[in-house]
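Input chain follows. Return structure tokens only.
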Amino acid sequence: MEEVVDLLLLGIAVLALIFASVTDIKKQEVPNWLHYSLLAAALAIRGIASLLFWELSYFYWALIAVAIFYILGEFFYYGKVFGGGDTGLFVALAAVFATRPYFVKTTILGEPFLMTFLINAIFLGAIWSIFMIIYSFIKFKPKKKFFKQIHKKLVAPNKLAEGDSLTENIKIGKTIIKKSAYGLTKEQIKLLIKHKKKIWIMKAYVFVPVILLALVVSLFYGNLLFNLIYNLIG
């Protein structure tokens, strides 16, 4: 029955990533409710399965994976590697793939599936980022404008969306809206709209399709980087 649960988890993850990819392409944003829902569904499915089959590790490994990816997510977010929505998806996917799915073969080094997935996402993301930097450089000339546009943009409060990521903490009266890996909440946006305060947010690039591609590659091919190194050495 564990095979059925693995397939169910894979199904909801792929559906969530397809929906997030479409949203990312259309609006350059990933709504917070999406990764929260995926996280809750994955933990619920694993929790129920662990009780039914008395495999407690099937659930507590998810908690461990979520904690690790949350810490990594904060590091990558503040290092400007991933946006808030992307970070939230990675945390949710950590719960989905906390244990290696039964249909995925062990890689050359036998590393956890989540490590394979993360390495593939970073590797493919680096290639995609280089492409986007070249595209932005061509689009935003002269160079001064390019360097302003590539990292951040000034946005009116009524144009903000849930999950948009601040470039710095914002003070409104006695309230401080802090930078977060998960971006702005609806309540914070309402506060900014009320005070008609324009803010700088991190410029969002379409990245979720890269995460979806990294998952597909991880499932059907393995670790791109490790296989590349292995083939070069061999």
